């Protein structure tokens, strides 16, 4: 354990009374009613003090303060004197839920089946995922509203019925809207998207979850989380020149890898935090998801207060000031971290990550050599800026300064250059302040306020089937993710680096050291740009028709719209319990396949064109594992059917063989590799195998959100005790559990073994590990968490 030093605890980041009043230049021009979004600080602080007594007054990290102050029953979760972080399960009461339009469909279908008349906590829906980028904001938005009308009507009618705030298509990306409207220091919130931690830029814990977890909060059921470890990231120095907060998290991703944050909260501290803008911190928190972190957070700072004031939330800022003065919004002096990582911001340089994984980090100074060593063409085919990671006013004004330099020199971009504003508020403020015209003057196409190409909603007509490289300010870069082309290499960088390189068209261009040749033949070099974190004239809200009425009352007479013949929406049938003749041991399971290597939720349940089926489990299940690699043969989307009937082929697509198993009432299992389920929070990656009859998945290791999603849907996730056992089990083998009944019945030191019967007749046993809690075992026995919740409500 690492301890926070006396020097650090006495720093300005101790917040409280050392914070100055917000700068007059950023005074807001409006003030919202903040009664529904201000955390109940008095209650939280009272519970924090009570928890401190339970823990013998030991110093706490900021993450612990926020988590423990939201405990449903502190004595139940914390008593016993044992280790908490990394060991205990916490029963928590989140204050808010936010859902994007793709994941909200399944979450609402599950919530509706619970039979409640309203949500137990404030909840919002954000229409951002279903808007496809083709040729520009206005036409893309109109086209997407028309093509997705059925889904938007369903979401809006459900929102009206249950009192949910509904942000219409065009309002912006969920994470930017949450940061602008709902986030508040010290709160705990859930979001049905893996980049929900973006809100951590305002000093809270915002955690990405699947829809079933969101339903816990929406129904008032305590939400369970295994107490994460806390990694302290000590920031010293100051960013300068071309280096941005995006480069900090790209650098850190290279250090931690995509698994380094699993089961951990990243808590930043030190003098380097106070220098960052609130939206810059949000960028860092956003991409914590790429290292598997549960979430990321920061102590309350003056820049957070300034952002709250500028976005009309001065009452929240005043309440946070008071809470900070009582020591609630920063770590205690002497607080211990499970690990401390030292980063000197003054030593960082721009960083580019990729391709195909967000943790392959290369400093800009070495990137040209890296491209040459790999034998790639030194060509850029497109530059894209925006997404939930980098679409703030500060990001856009910074790249606009580069565009001004380029225009003055007579330059335009050499490749398609696409820009996505984060919200209607950002778009309108950009337009008012001339940022939009500046970008368009050098060749940019401004897209709708939505996710667009970042999640595969990009109708790209060039480079089909060709190897090519794009540079983006996005957060993920898995194969096929952005344009459906497995050969497109997406390199992640800051918006400034993406913009500068769009003027060169070359991957090896380094704007710090290299020059561009002007039409006159003279050399031109960019100077480092500086953005404005907040607009001096204040934000303008833009088209408020996109916005919801705050805190709407439920309208129970509203009919939720689902057409009987719909191919987009489908009511859910409860999953049945797996148990039968073997009592509390699973029935014999056939191995569908052994999955090789990286298998993200994009591999398990692809997005892009499949997003239209997010509310229809039968239809979207047709894409199960279609980009996964079968370790027995190395083919993509190929599975073996060793028990095929006459007339059936020996191999077929993975979903086709899974459907055969389901038709035979044959329960099955998967054998998977390390960090299975990395990436998005999409619960469809758990629902789809469950729908086809999967009862158990055995992994070398799991990503946190996906493992929880499997538990929620009644799929048992087991870990190989010896990772080498992965290769001993193959398709067509039969697996039986031994000891699961002991575990369910609560016997001490119960261990689950697997009896494996090979197709050759060989039989052996292997040992597994698990992370199932007492409540999670109850979900599993009931067939799903929702079944269990429903049984308790009836």
Number of helices: 27
Strand order of the main beta sheet, please? 23-27-28-29-32-31-30
**Rg, Cα atoms, Å:** 26 Å
Number of strands: 32
What is the average of the pLDDT values?
93
Q: Strand count, sense and closure of the main sheet?
A: 7 strands, mixed, barrel
What structural class results from the helix and strand content?
A: alpha/beta
Please state the oligomeric state of the protein chains shown.
single chain
Work out the helicity level.
Answer: 25-40%
Name the shape in a single word: globular
Uncertain residue ranges: 4-27
N→C terminal distance: 46 Å
Beta-strand portion reads: 15-25%
Pfam families: Aconitase (PF00330), Aconitase_C (PF00694)
Organism: Suillus placidus
EC number: 4.2.1.-
Protein name: Aconitate hydratase, mitochondrial
Task: Walk me through what this model shows.
With 794 residues, the chain is α/β, with parallel strands linked by helices. Helix content is 30%, strand content 17%. It is built from 27 helices and 32 strands. It has a seven-stranded mixed barrel. A hairpin with a 7-residue loop joins β14 (351-353) and β15. α10 packs parallel to α12 (278-286) and α16 runs parallel beside α19 (495-502). The protein starts with a strand and ends with a helix. Mean pLDDT is 93; it is low at 4-27.
């Amino acid at each position: 354990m690492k301890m926070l030093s006396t020097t650090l605890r006495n720093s300005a980041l101790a917040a409280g009374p050392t914070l100055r009043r917000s700068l007059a230049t950023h005074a807001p021009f409006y003030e919202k009613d903040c009664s529904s979004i201000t955390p109940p600080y008095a209650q939280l602080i009272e519970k924090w003090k009570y928890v401190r007594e339970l823990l013998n007054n030991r110093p706490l990290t900021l993450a612990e303060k926020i988590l423990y102050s939201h405990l449903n029953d502190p004595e139940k979760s914390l008593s016993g004197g044992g280790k908490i972080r990394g060991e205990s399960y916490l029963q928590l009461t989140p204050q808010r839920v936010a859902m994007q339009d793709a994941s909200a469909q399944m979450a609402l279908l599950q919530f509706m089946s619970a039979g409640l008349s309203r949500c137990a906590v404030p909840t919002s829906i954000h229409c951002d995922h279903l808007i496809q980028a083709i040729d520009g904001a206005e036409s893309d938005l109109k086209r997407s509203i028309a093509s997705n009308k059925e889904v938007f009507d369903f979401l809006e009618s459900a929102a009206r019925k249950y009192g949910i705030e509904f942000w219409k298509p065009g309002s912006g990306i969920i994470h930017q809207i949450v940061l602008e409207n709902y986030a508040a220091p010290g709160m705990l919130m859930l979001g049905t998207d893996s980049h929900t931690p973006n809100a951590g830029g305002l000093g809270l814990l915002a955690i990405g979850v699947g829809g079933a977890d969101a339903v816990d909060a929406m129904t008032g059921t305590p939400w369970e989380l295994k107490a994460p470890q806390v990694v302290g990231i000590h920031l010293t120095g100051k960013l300068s020149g071309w280096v941005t907060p995006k480069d900090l998290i790209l650098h850190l991703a290279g250090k931690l890898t995509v698994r380094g944050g699993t089961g951990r909260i990243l808590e930043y501290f030190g003098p380097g935090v106070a220098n960052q803008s609130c939206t810059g911190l949000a960028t860092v928190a956003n991409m914590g998801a790429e290292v598997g972190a549960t979430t990321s957070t920061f102590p309350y700072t003056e820049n957070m207060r300034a952002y709250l004031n500028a976005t009309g939330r001065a009452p929240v800022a005043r309440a946070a000031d008071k809470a900070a003065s009582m020591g609630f919004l920063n770590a205690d002096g002497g607080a211990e971290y499970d690990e401390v990582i030292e980063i000197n911001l003054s030593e960082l340089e721009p960083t580019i990550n990729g391709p195909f994984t967000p943790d392959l980090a290369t400093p800009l100074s070495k990137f040209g050599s890296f491209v040459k060593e790999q034998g790639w063409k030194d060509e850029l085919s497109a530059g894209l800026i925006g997404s939930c990671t980098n679409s703030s006013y500060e990001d856009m004004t910074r790249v606009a300064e580069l565009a001004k330099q380029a225009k003055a020199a007579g330059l335009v971009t050499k490749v398609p250059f696409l820009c996505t504003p984060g919200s209607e508020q950002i778009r309108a403020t950009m337009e008012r302040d001339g940022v939009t015209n500046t970008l368009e003057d050098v060749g940019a196409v401004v897209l709708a306020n939505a996710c667009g190409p970042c999640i595969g909603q990009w109708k790209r007509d060039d480079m089909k089937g060709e190897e090519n490289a794009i540079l983006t300010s996005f957060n993920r870069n898995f194969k096929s993710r952005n344009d459906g082309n497995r050969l497109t290499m997406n390199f992640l960088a800051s918006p400034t680096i993406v913009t500068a390189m769009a003027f060169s068209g070359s991957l090896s261009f380094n704007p710090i050291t290299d020059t561009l040749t002007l039409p006159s033949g003279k050399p031109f070099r960019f100077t480092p740009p500086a953005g404005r974190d907040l607009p001096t004239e204040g934000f303008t809200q833009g088209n408020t028709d996109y916005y919801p009425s705050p805190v709407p009352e439920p309208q129970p007479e509203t009919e939720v719209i689902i057409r009987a013949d719909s191919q987009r929406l489908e009511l859910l049938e409860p999953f049945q319990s797996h148990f039968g003749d073997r009592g509390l041991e699973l029935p014999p399971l056939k191995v569908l396949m052994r999955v090789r290597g990286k298998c993200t939720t994009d591999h398990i349940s692809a997005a892009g064109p499949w997003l239209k089926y997010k509310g229809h489990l039968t239809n979207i299940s047709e894409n199960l594992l279609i980009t996964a690699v079968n370790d027995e043969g190395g083919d993509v989307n190929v599975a073996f059917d060793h028990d095929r009937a006459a007339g059936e082929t020996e191999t077929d697509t993975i979903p086709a063989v899974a459907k055969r198993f389901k038709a035979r009432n044959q329960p099955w299992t998967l054998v998977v590799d390390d960090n299975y389920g990395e990436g998005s929070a999409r619960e469809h990656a758990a629902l789809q195998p469950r729908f086809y009859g999967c009862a158990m998945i055995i992994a070398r290791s799991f990503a946190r959100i996906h493992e929880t999603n499997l538990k929620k849907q009644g799929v048992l996730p087991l870990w190989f005790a010896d990772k080498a056992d992965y290769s001993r089990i193959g398709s067509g083998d039969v697996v039986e559990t031994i000891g699961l009944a002991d575990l369910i019945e609560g016997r001490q030191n119960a261990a689950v073994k697997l009896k494996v019967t090979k197709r050759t007749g060989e039989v052996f046993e292997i040992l597994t590990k698990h992370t199932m809690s007492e409540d999670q075992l109850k979900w599993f026995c009931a067939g799903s968490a929702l079944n269990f919740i429903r049984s308790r409500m009836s």
